[in-house]
Amino acid sequence: MANPLVKIFGSKYEKDIKSLLPFVREINNFESKIQPLSDEQLKNKTSEFRERLSNGATLDDILTEAFAVVRETARRTVDMRHFDVQLMGGVVLYQGKIAEMKTGEGKTLAATLPLYLIGLKGEGAHLITVNDYLAKRDATWMGPIYEFLGLKVAYLYHDIPFDERKNAYEADITYGTNNEFGFDYLRDNMADDYANMVQRSHSYAIVDEVDSVLIDEARTPLIISGPAGSASGQYYELKPKIMNLVSRQKSIVNRFLKEAEDLLAQNNTEDAGKRLLQAEKGDPKNKRLLKLKENPENIRLIQKTEFYYNQTKSISLIEEELYFVIEEKGHSVTLTERGRAALSPSNPEKLILQDYTDSIAELDSSGLSGEDLYRKKSELEEEYLQMSERLHIINQLLRAYSLYEKDVEYVVQDGRVVIVDEFTGRLMPGRRYGEGLHQAIEAKEDVTIERDTQTLATITIQNYFRLYDKLAGMTGTADTEAEEFAKIYNLEVVVIPTNEPVIRKDHPDRIYRTGKEKWKSIGDEIEESYKKGQPVLVGTISVDKSELLSKILKKRKIAHEVLNAKHHEKEAQIIAKAGEQKSVTIATNMAGRGTDIKLGEGVVELGGLHVIGTERHEARRIDNQLRGRSGRQGDQGSSRFYLSLEDDLMRLFGSEKISSIMLRMGMEENQKIDSPMVSKAIGSAQKKVETRNFEIRKHLLEYDNVMNDQRNFIYSKRREFIDDENIDQKTTAIMEEMIEAKLEEQELPRSGISYKEAGPIFFWLSDIIRKQWESDIDSEAELSVNALREALARFCSDAFAEKIQEIGEEIAPQVERFIALQAIDRRWKEHLYEMDGLREGIGYQRYAQKDPLIEYKFQAFNLFQELIKNINTDIIRSIFKVRIAPRVQTQRIWQINKTQHDEYDQFHTGRAPEPAVSHPERPQAQKIMERQQVVVGKKVGRNDLCPCGSGKKYKYCCGR
Ligand code: ADP
Ligand code: MG
């Protein structure tokens, strides 16, 4: 077939392979020279390579020989000789690209090639796995290769003690999950000393299952957090009102549906369409509505009606009879006029966010005097903020009630709302929905509303991996997401051919009208295979669905295993046996990933492993992952997906086209169709979702990019001070920056500055550095900005020199470092808090018709400038505040360092002391954070006693 597209795609693939072949040839050529070497000689290759590198050779120069050495070592130590395709994969990984190698092709072994080569540099090479179990398994499994060649290898795991963790990073090659690497980075940047840091570089990383990590996991940032102010009682206060509204809406919708049914019976499609559309907007998950929508004619009718009302711009006629409008695809709920009136009967307009700037403008032109104007304005601002917050909470409660279903989106466990990952079905304890939604769900479920937490440190997975000089990835399924990898990570995808051709049979999808029919047929098919003895692996999209299927199978007396990606090691052992005769294994997407399914005896004759998908996932990629579990290394195998029109994916994104195709085919109840046309339509529905999810991730990144620049700046500032060297110069630079900012703020002319104008600036400085200013400037003189700057700098640096003498030259650097870190950390934490607020509040800008991102960037920039100014002033002010009694100098320093400990410890106070044995490893705050979100004690209030023990209020002491 002369499809030009195939040719274009084909050519990228062919070009890639062609460019890899010369490497393979050379490596193979080396084999005859390397195989005869004794173990001793083979081991010596490492020092030989290192010597060549130190004499100017590059890694490129030694690549082929080094790969040949690894191959031979693998043969001798782990009894595997890299296949040629694995060599290709190794080269691609070395080049900093993504190698798409199908499941079972041996990516673990392929990665040893570049890890050894780059490991030779001794800067540390990292391999990122999807769970702790795989980090350990792979480091241990491949360990003998590295150790034979004299390289150190180690792995991280969740509660690894501090010293071991540090050692693991000292190794040449380190395996671990993205959580461990990412949080270590954040924790390192909260540490006060090199001794308390663990990572030494971000030189090279290979991300295994790169699509899971960089795409699926990247939707939520890593956050280390502690509690913030007070929890809002408003959720519980508003809850009954919202419940009432929701149930009133439900009864309206039921009435509409009743009417729609009657109207349909009378063939009055026009009015029926209106009612159906209203039901769709009022309660899209309504059972009666879903029942009606089993008839594709009705879906068409709804769409036609919506189109008509949109076209005639009269959609408000549809919406005005509802209390709120649900947009299921966009996960949004909007209160209508009627809803507002119902919530606040006395004063419905109270809940409209009038354009606040309008009111301000009105005030400005009202002729009020300064003081009154100011007061009125701040009253208005306060009112506006309260109203925004209330509206926000109402909105989140409405979402909690109408879009988030218990045991689907979340579960309630031990009095806590735990999110269920929509992709993998995994529970994610500790993770919380943002922007108050979690609190709203907690109110809905009548559990304690957990306190709002404040971010102490955060980074997205994207930005963490961008830290690496060179990044590479490997997975069985990357090609469909090539665009995202290219755009966001600058990573190219190279598809590596399989070692043996894939002979798995992928049967066309089976599509049913209802879920019930679908599940019955799935049961039939499993039973059929089970009776034959052929092993079956069934993939589901959620824990829920796994349990549903498990019940069905129990009724049919079919023995089976259910895996939920909870206990990786145990599940790996179970799934390893999924290829044996009569095995039936039900697994969510992530369960048992990375574990090889070998076929049991006699299974080849039965057709190999049969994979059943019970629903299409949101991304084609995840369907492919499931299919790829079968047919490894040229094995026999088959796969089939089952779908129904009631599946979420179909309901939300594919309905129109699919229902019309099915209509044309005259489909009736209890009938299944195997149609490539329908499968194609579903594929394009998935593409729609993929694009939308990509947009969401890009959006998250756009916001985080702003933070990323700020974080990099602050982290590098911290490091400057952690490094004691030339610390006086750093302090001097800060003084100059501080003065410069002040001068800029004053907007002075370049020259002709009068004494009257300059005076206050000297007094400002004199207050900070606690030194009387004695003017040597003639009061008649006029200064240029340059002269003024110099005079101020001189005033400051003279005082600084004296201060250093007073403190003592030897310990001054420690004092400066301590003060600087403390100021940076305290202000940065406050800044993160403000940024959280900014991020939450910025959504309201939409009501004021501004672009939220632009507004966010603008305001974030202002906040950041303010931050830098505050940090600088804090540092200088504190340095001049320090008093050290000459005789007890050293002891005082020790005390100050302890205060620093306390300062960190402020997050600890109010919480039971940690049992000493559980965390003996880490001296300070680093040990308190775990996983995604962790609560780390209580924040010190501005009016609380200062934790340094001075007996003063925090705000007058360390909190100043
Ligand atoms: P992937 O991560 O690509 O899915 P694995 O690294 O888990 O694959 O390896 C799959 C299986 O293939 C393992 O059982 C491994 O022992 C085997 N294998 C990989 N490479 C080779 C090789 N060169 N020779 C023999 N067996 C290999
Ligand atoms: Mg693997």
Give me a quick take on this structure.
This protein is of the alpha/beta class and 960 residues long. The chain is built from 32 helices and 23 strands.
Low-confidence sequence ranges: 1-6, 885-940, 946-950
| Count of helical regions | 32
Strand percentage, roughly?
A: 5-15%
Q: Provide the residue-averaged pLDDT.
A: 83
- How far apart the termini lie comes to 75 Å
Major sheet size, sense and barrel closure: 7 strands, parallel
Shape: flat
Task: Enumerate the strands of the largest sheet in spatial order, edge to edge or round the barrel.
Answer: 3-4-2-5-13-1-14
Secondary-structure topology with pairs:
Blueprint: H1 4-34, H2 39-54, H3 59-77, H4 84-94, E1 98-100, H5 107-119, E2 125-129, H6 132-148, E3 153-155, H7 162-170, E4 173-177, H8 178-188, E5 204-208, H9 210-216, E6 222-227, H10 234-265, H11 269-282, H12 287-292, H13 296-311, H14 315-319, E7 324-327, E8 332-335, H15 337-343, H16 356-364, H17 370-402, E9 410-413, E10 416-420, E11 427-428, H18 437-444, E12 453-459, H19 461-465, E13 470-475, H20 482-489, E14 493-495, E15 505-506, E16 510-512, H21 515-532, E17 536-540, H22 543-555, E18 561-563, H23 568-576, E19 584-588, E20 609-613, H24 620-627, E21 637-644, H25 648-664, H26 676-722, H27 727-746, E22 753-754, H28 755-769, E23 782-783, H29 785-807, H30 812-841, H31 852-881, H32 889-905
Helix pairs in contact: 1-3, 1-4, 2-3, 3-5, 3-6, 4-5, 5-6, 10-11, 10-17, 11-13, 13-25, 16-17, 17-18, 25-26, 26-30, 26-31, 27-29, 27-31, 28-29, 30-31, 30-32
Adenosine-5'-diphosphate binds next to α5.
